[in-house]
Amino acid sequence: MLQLFLTTLHHINQLIQPALVPLCFVLAWGLVGIVGWSLWAAARDSVRVAQRMHQIPCANCQYFTNTHFLKCPVHPSAAGSEEAVNCRDFEARGYASVANSDRVY
User: Fold this and answer.
1) Reported pTM
2) Separation between Cα atoms, residue 72 and residue 58, nearest integer Å
């Protein structure tokens, strides 16, 4: 019984052997391709997020306090986030507007 099983296994191995090398070649290069594509996609997404985050104007706003307790008294929930990209209350630091001409700097 064991001899029959081993003989059958040997014959199956001889039938599969010619296809194993090309199959392993394709699978190995496919794995390399998938890893490369994943790395490329992660780098591309990181660049997009970084570009989007560099559009946040909070650090250059006169209302920005740069403390972790209260980053912005005008919009505390949106300060430093993507919601602040088009902030209506943004005023560049160091430039007084007509409405704020009575402030002391």
Assistant:
1) 0.56
2) 8
- In whole angstroms, give the CA distance from residue 94 to residue 27: 60
Neighbours of 29 (CB within 10 A): 10
The DSSP code for 78 is T
Instruction: Give the pair of three-digit tokens for residue 10.
Output: 């040997």
pLDDT digits (tens, 9 = 90+) for 24-75: 999 999 999 999 999 999 999 999 999 988 888 888 888 888 787 888 888 8
**Residue 29 and residue 41: Cα distance in Å, rounded?**
18
21 to 17, 24, 34: CA distances (angstroms): 7, 5, 20
